[in-house]
Amino acid sequence: IGLGFVGVKLHPQAHAVNPSSSAGTNVFETALALGIPVMVHTGDGIPWTLPSKFIQIARKFPDLKIILAHCGGSMFTDEAILAGQLCPNIYLEPSWLPSMTIRGFCRILGANRLMFGSDMGENVASELAKFRSIGLTDEELEWCLCKTAAKVFRIPFT
To 5 degrees, how large is the angle CA 40–CA 94–CA 146? Predict the structure, then answer.
């Protein structure tokens, strides 16, 4: 894995980087060269953080795994699922979303495209409870809570 990194996070609003700009493109090119995924903040901070913004980027870099953190927030979940449907290299991290939205993502894209995230330590228990309460099979739960992230970040899992 490139320089010991397992991934990089781009927060377009906090980093003041338009993902489609030359600076943004540099992040995606560098991650691809290092063989690591890019997690991007989506949701607040539009227009740079709209999930649909990453469809063109994912198509430009089809060998790069891109994780849409927060799946666009509650307002833009439809864009996140569309991005996932159109781009097999896009994965969804649904922290802060309602549990039934997470269930819908799993049914539409499959558990192997969805990964647990909490966004902050204090939020782990409530985010975990969402996954455990939406009627996933044991196998789906294992993918969402562990295997998807292990695959995307190339972390050994046994």
Answer: 95
